[in-house]
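Q: what does this look like with nicotinamide-adenine-dinucleotide bound?
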Amino acid sequence: MEDYTRHLVGNEWVRGSGGEYESVNPFTRSAWAVHTHASEADVSRAVAAARSAFPAWRQTSGYDRARLILRLADLMERDIDRLAELETRDNGKIVRENKNQIAFAARIYRFFAGLADKLNGETKPLDNYDTVDYTVREPLGVCALITAWNSPLQLLANKLPPALAAGNTAVIKPSEFTSVSTLALGEVILEAGFPPGVINVITGAAGTGAALTSHPDVDKISFTGGVETARVIAANAAAHMTPATYELGGKSANIIFPDANLDRAIPGAVSGIFAAAGQTCVAGSRLVVHADLYDEVVEAVAKRAQLVRLGDPMDAQTQMGPLAHSGHLTRVRRAIADALEDGARLVTGGAPPPGLEDTLFMAPTVFADVTTGMRLAQQEVFGPVLAVQRFRTDSEAIEIANGTRYALASGLWSGDITRAHRVAKELRAGTCWINTYRTSAAQAPFGGFRNSGYGRERGTDGILEYTTTKNTMIDLSTAVRDPFVLGR
Ligand code: NAD
C-alpha cells in the first residue's frame, strides 16, 4: 500500500486528520494507496495558507506568474508518463488517453500563462470631460478548485492556471476516487517554486468538499462534477454569496444527417460514446440518426462496439478499460435495466463481456429505438451506453437534441454547410461540433448551461471567471459640486 496520507499546505506536507480512505485500482480491484480526509480544521488551515499568500501573490507581475506557470507546465510534461500511470491506476482509463490529456493539460497551462500579463482594463470616455474613468481586472482571492474522477489533472488544468495567472491563490480538492495524481502534481508544484500557500492540495470526500465550499474565506468556487453535488454546493455557497463556476454533466446529442460522410461520422459516433468508456462529460450519448440511414448506422456502430478491445488500461493496445469504481458500475447497470424496462431495443452489450463478469468492465452497449421520454434519453449514464434515436426532418432532429435538461455539448455530421450552420444555431448546448466530436482546444471556451452548469473554462472567457472588475473615477476639476445631487 502506498502512503498518500499527506496534504500540501503552505508548501509543507502535512497529514490530514479526518481519518483514512483507500484508492482502489479498478482493473485489479485492490486497494493500492491510502489517503486522509481533510477535516474542517485541515480545510481551514489550507484556506488560511492560501489567504496569507494572496496579498503578495496578487502583487507579483503577470510576467513573473507566467514564468512559474510555464515552469510547472514543463515539469508536468517531463513527468507525463508517471502522472498518467498514477491516474490510470486510480480511474482505469487507458494510459494512452491519460498521457494525451496531461499533454493537453500542459498546453492549457501555457495558454493561461500567456494571458497572465494581458488582463487589460479599459478607459471609459464619460459624459463629463473632467472625469477620468478606468477599469482593472482584479483577482478574487482564495479559489476552491474541486475536480471529478474521470480526468483529474486535465480538469484541474481548466481551473488552476487561470486562477493563478489572474493573481488568485488556490486550495485544490480532487475526487476521493482519484486523489493520487493531484498529490503527485503537488510534488511538481513544489519543484516549480511557487511561494508557500499559493497552491494547496487537500484530499477527502463530500465532507471535505462541503467544508471547503462553505468556508467564509473562500472567494471563488470552481467545481467539476455531477449536478446533484453542484446543487448542494450552490446552497452552501449562498451563505457567503461565493461566486462559482459549475462544469457538470451532459446528455449530448450527436446528429447524423442523410448527407453526412459516414466514413467519418461512424468513427465520430463511436469515439463520442466509447472513448474513456463513456466516462466523459461531453459523451455523445444520444446518437440522433436520420430514418434513411438509421438501420445502416445502428448496425455499423454496433459492429464497431463489438470490436472495441477491452483489457488492461496500462496496455498500449487496449481501447477501453474498466469503469472507475464499483458504485459507478452499479449505476451504469441500473441505467441499462431502466432502458430495457422503458422498451429500448438492446442491440449489443448490456452486461460485462463474457469472461469478465466479476470485474468492473461493461461491454460497449448500444440501444436503438430510444425515444425522448425514456430515462436513457434523459439521464446521464457516464458509461459506455449509447441511445440511438430516429428523426425525419431537421426540425425534428433539433427538437430531439434539445429535449433534455442538459446543455453541455452537441455534434452534427452533414456535408451541407448551410444545413450544418442552420442547425448549429438552434442547438441548445455550450459546444457544437460540426463534422467532428470531442475535439478540444486551449483557446476555445468550454462549458454548459441548464443542468450542465454555468461559467466557462478555457479560452479568454476562462480567465475572466477568476477576476472581478473594479472601476475607478478621478475628478480632475476644481469645481465644488452640489452634495445633494448625483454626480455625473
Ligand atoms: P461528484 O459530483 O460525485 O463529485 C465531484 C467532486 O465533488 C468530488 O471531488 C467529490 O469529492 C466532491 N464532492 C462531493 N460531495 C461534495 C459536497 N457536498 N461539497 C463539495 N464537494 C463535494 O461527481 P463525480 O462522480 O466525481 O464525476 C462525475 C460527474 O462529473 C458527471 O456528472 C460528469 O458529467 C461530470 N463531469 C463534468 C465535466 C465538465 O467539464 N462539464 C467534466 C468531467 C466530469
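The chain has two domains: 2-248+452-472, 253-434. The first strand starts at residue 2 and ends at 4.
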